[in-house]
Design goal:
- 2 copies of one chain form a homodimer.
- With 109 residues, chain A is mainly alpha-helical.
- Chain A has a single domain (5-106), classed as Winged helix-like DNA-binding domain superfamily/Winged helix DNA-binding domain (Arc Repressor Mutant, subunit A).
- Chain A contains 4 helices and 3 strands; from the N terminus they run H-E-H-H-E-E-H.
- The first copy, chain A, has a 3-stranded antiparallel β-sheet.
- The longest helix of chain A has 25 residues, at 82-106.
- Chain A is globular, with a radius of gyration of 15 Å.
- Chain A starts with 11 loop residues before the first helix and ends with a helix.
- Chain B binds a DNA duplex (30 and 30 nucleotides) through helix 2 and helix 3.
Chain lengths: 109, 109
DNA sequence: TGAGATACCTTGACAGGCGAGGTATCTCGT
DNA sequence: ACGAGATACCTCGCCTGTCAAGGTATCTCA
């Protein structure tokens, strides 16, 4: 079973922010965490992930720095900004509302 | 408070099918029911609604007939097909899965 | 040496939502 | 009689997020 990202459209940013709430991280790791947390049912495509990073950084919700690993592939590390924390909090509230709404609209009355 | 339709993207079809599960209906009425059920928090835009009807009919999940009202504006009535009923059932299952997934990905661990 | 993992990136196509515009009928107050 | 507002339908074209497909570079291990 694998869930379509189209049904999660608009939540990508929030999912990423939620990961960054645990602390600084980087793309590849975040992606594996999401896959693991979903039990393999869902995975963010790379293009979607990196597009989202650009969007989030442009919006001022995250900021990035290049890692200084002396070996291995280079990593770009991301951190949430205070604005990002606000955004995450707000988005979680919106999710709860959306969830209740869809329950009402889709489930038996 | 008003919820963005972007967060509901992909659920429009299911919301409409769910309305038609109650029996034959028409666009304007369905739209008002959705608004009412959401307590005014959400409303399907007309362009979205009629686009969805086309999509659903092309997919064979609903079928339509023009009403024979002898007064008032003309109405186009829609009914679910057996395929539509299957689709609705499946979509409701997908919603439950998506809901659990987002709970896991967005809420505190 | 080469496969596979790690790690990043961009481009262009596609699909759904919707703003803006349109049509036509009926009711009700002035 | 006339205009506003409700009822009821429709289409065109823009915008935005997803993602397939392509790319780069490093490291490990057989």
């Amino acid at each position: 079973m694998s869930l379509s990202s189209d049904l999660l459209r608009g939540y990508t940013d929030t999912i990423i922010l939620r990961r960054l709430a645990e602390g600084e991280s980087y793309g590849y790791r975040i992606n594996r965490e999401i896959t693991a947390l979903s039990g393999g049912a869902f995975e963010l495509k790379e293009a979607t992930l990196y597009t989202a990073f650009r969007r989030l950084e442009n919006a001022g919700w995250i900021c990035s720095r290049w890692g200084d690993e002396e070996s291995g592939a280079r990593r770009r590390y991301y951190r949430m900004t205070p604005e990002g924390e606000e955004k995450l909090k707000k988005d979680c509230g919106t999710w709860r509302e959306t969830r209740e709404l869809l329950n009402r609209l889709l489930m038996e009355e």
